[in-house]
Amino acid sequence: MKIEFYGIGLREVGKFLAVGAASAALNTTIIVMFTELFGQPYLVSFTICFFLVNTFGFITNRSWTFHVKHNRWKWQFLRYFAISFASLLLSMAVSVVLVRQGIVYWIAVYASAALMAPINFVAMRFVSFGISRQPAGALRR
Fold it and tell me: CB neighbours of 61 closer than 8 A, spacing ≥ 6?
């Protein structure tokens, strides 16, 4: 049985969350690697990581999660990064508010990530990749 809501299937949501989890693991690994092994300041490592992990997320979400087939990838890539950057800023703002309320920073970071996941899914699906209300898994040209 296939469960869908506005053409969004649970499998598609699951794949998006899997890419997000893999991205989070890559994020931590890359920052630690560049900071500890290569001696880069952590903000430099964070910046390198932002570009590498978002490139991974773009490629994986485009091909595996949303099955986008058309070749307008350059505009999608720019929209994807713009959305990712806006999401980063919003996540940071939420984290700051939570930390100022006495929440431990790493819990605040996870809470902001959980808050942003559905927002990012909708933004990436409809804005970055331009997928409208078509059945999940349908060929996207």
Answer: 15, 16, 19, 80, 124, 129
Segment (H or E) for 70: none
**Residue 40 CB partners (closer than 8 Å, separation 6+):** 34, 48
Let me know how long the chain is: 141
Taking the CA of residue 56 as centre, how many other CA atoms within 13 Å lie in the half-sphere pointing to its CB?
17
pTM of the model: 0.81
Per-residue pLDDT reduced to its tens digit, 57-99: 999 999 999 999 888 899 999 999 999 999 999 988 998 999 9
DSSP letter, residue 133: S
Residue 4 banded pLDDT, cuts 50, 70, 90? low
Measure the N-to-C terminal CA separation of the chain; round to a whole number of Å: 25
Tokens of 111: 């809470």
CA separation for the pair 79, 130 (Å, rounded):
10
CA-CA distance, 74 to 57, in Å (whole number)?
15
Name the helix (H) or strand (E) containing 24. helix 10-32
